[in-house]
Amino acid sequence: MTGIAKPRHGIIPWPPVIYVAAIALGIALGLLYPLPWIGDIFGDLMFGVGWVALFGVAMLWITAIRAMFKARTTLDPNAEPDHLVTSGPFGITRNPMYLANTLLLIGVSEPDR
Q1: What is the pTM of this model?
Q2: Using one digit for the tens of pLDDT, what is the confidence trace for 62-111?
Q3: How far apart are CA 11 and CA 85, in angstroms?
Q4: Residue 109 burial (CB < 10 Å; 0-12/13-18/19+)?
Q5: Does 33 reside within a domain?
Q6: Which domain, by its residues, includes 49?
């Protein structure tokens, strides 16, 4: 079926909301109970890993969205998809959008400078 995707009702919570809530909780906990800074080379390594993870997030989002547009299917995680996408990052992982969101959590959890 093509056209407007039919929403599936009764699915709570909407998956991206879980990631936003986790990031907000992490920020709140970081403000209330800050952890000590990890210095020296290990801290610099963790900071670099965070940026690499964020770069990976951007690349996964871009390639996954392009593959979904190319397959003419919905981007809404609660809607019924029109087509099964198996190309691009979907050929490697079942859901690259969730993988990207998990990498986002890892990337933003790296210590501040």
Answers
A1: 0.71
A2: 999 999 999 998 887 777 888 889 999 999 998 898 899 889 888 887 65
A3: 22
A4: middle
A5: no
A6: 39-108
For helices 40-70 and 96-108, give the axis angle rounded to 10 degrees.
160
89 inside domain: yes
Distance CA 105, CA 110 (A): 9
Asked if the structure places residue 34 within a domain, the reply is: no
Tens of pLDDT, residues 38-72: 777 887 888 888 899 999 999 999 999 999 999 99
Neighbours of 76 (CB within 10 A): 12
pLDDT > 90: percent of the chain? 23
Q: How far apart are CA 68 and CA 81, in angstroms?
A: 10
